[in-house]
Design the sequence.
């Protein structure tokens, strides 16, 4: 089980405050790194999103925490996350509208839907309402994957 993910944001405080609305929790400081925040995915879970200033790269160093480096240019990559919430589609839309973030509801192959939320319009989170999460969980498991796409070679 994934316990946390980290993303970069142009405005980490505002991004954390906006994300916190999806899970109806406070945005909290992440004191290990300057200008960084953490948003827990509910009030009774250890799962969270860490938000760092955009451009900070995590490096493999010898310290107790990964080193952060801003000297290298960023490039786009395939990272995204599907995250379940307990709020409805209309609430998600209001939160995104207030933040100025692009969002849209999309169908994933007729199997389940997600709301694509583009954090600061550059990082993709696929947000799942309770109904969407239920459909996703029925589809996304080893047995179904192998039945639809084939077994490992």
Sequence:
């Amino acid at each position: 089980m994934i316990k946390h993910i980290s993303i970069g944001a142009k405005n980490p405080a505002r991004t954390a405050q906006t994300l916190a609305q999806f899970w109806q929790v406070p945005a909290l400081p992440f004191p290990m790194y300057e200008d960084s925040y953490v948003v827990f995915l509910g009030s009774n879970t250890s799962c969270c999103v860490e938000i760092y200033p955009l451009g900070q790269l995590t490096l493999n160093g010898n310290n107790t925490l990964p080193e952060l480096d801003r000297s290298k240019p960023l490039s786009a990559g395939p990272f995204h996350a599907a995250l379940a919430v307990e709020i409805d589609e209309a609430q998600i839309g209001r939160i995104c509208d207030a933040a100025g973030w692009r969002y849209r509801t999309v169908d994933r192959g007729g199997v389940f839907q997600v709301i694509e939320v583009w954090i600061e319009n550059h990082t993709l989170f696929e947000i799942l309402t309770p109904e969407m999460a239920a459909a996703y969980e029925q589809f996304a498991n080893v047995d179904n994957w192998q039945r639809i796409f084939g077994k490992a070679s």
